[in-house]
Amino acid sequence: MAVLSKTQFSVTKPRKSRVLTGFMALYLIYTLVPLAWLVINASKTQPDLFSTSGLSLGGTFALFDNIGQTFTYNDGIFFRWLGNTLLYVVVGAGGATILATAAGYGLAKYRFPGRRGVFAVVLGAVAVPPTALAVPTFLMFSKMGLTNTPWAVLIPSLISPFGLYLIWVYAADAIPDELLEAARIDGAGEIRIFLTVTLRQLVPGIITVSLFTMVQTWNNYFLPLIMLSEPKWYPLTVGLNQWSAQANGAGAQPIFNLVLTGSLITIIPLVVAFLLMQRFWQSGLSAGSVKQ
């Protein structure tokens, strides 16, 4: 038996590019510095915000006091805005994920007349920015009497062309046609196949779509801004902007320390969601990148 030398078992390590490493370091700094700035300034009092530099601590560590004032200011309106945002995310982003999953699976695995036309419409919808549809949507909802109600934000949030396209592409490769045929031979109906067989295979894609729709709905600003006029229906994005606007005009009452603290609280749920679903998200993005 031939004896193999150690060199035959050695694995060549990938070469490191100093240029790419440098770019990644710059990108990391670019990403973390604004977050560090937000955390540091959320721990300052209102006077310290203007008497100290952005990346230095203030004379008093006031983070917990700022958090308490944020939740109690103006009769606790921040709680209402947080609840509104959760409502828009759970119903809007959750509904968009469900609709995108069902429609994407149907378009990927069923053949019917006009399928290519639907594909073209979906691609066109992906290319249209949401802000371009905000004014026509407002005019239509105004005639229907839905403006200044949660429905004016929830209904548009249910449509996610990009989520539909992503599920469509993912389902085409992730679900073998032979698996569906085997289920049909066993006597399973189409609804049962979708609920018991398909959904398990689509979990990475569903998680990916839910993350994208959740972030889009959570950070949605322009649509609620033009649809809502009552502060009680504001999401966090519009509400914090209203607090920031208090520093302008006659009788200005700046509360920048509460705006910064509220912004910090706002991003925590998104960070937690990404950390909890990271492995599903990564597998969903890499799906289809390697062909067997």
TrEMBL record:
GO CC terms of this entry: plasma membrane
The keyword Transmembrane helix is annotated on this UniProt entry: yes
Keyword Cell membrane: yes
Pfam families, per database record: BPD_transp_1 (PF00528)
Coiled coil: none
Topology class, membrane: Multi-pass membrane protein
InterPro entries: MetI-like, MetI-like_sf
Domain ABC transmembrane type-1 stretches: 82-277
PANTHER family: ABC TRANSPORTER PERMEASE PROTEIN MG189-RELATED (PTHR43744:SF12), ABC TRANSPORTER PERMEASE PROTEIN MG189-RELATED-RELATED (PTHR43744)
Name assigned to this protein: Carbohydrate ABC transporter membrane protein 2, CUT1 family
Lineage: Bacteria, Bacillati, Actinomycetota, Actinomycetes, Pseudonocardiales
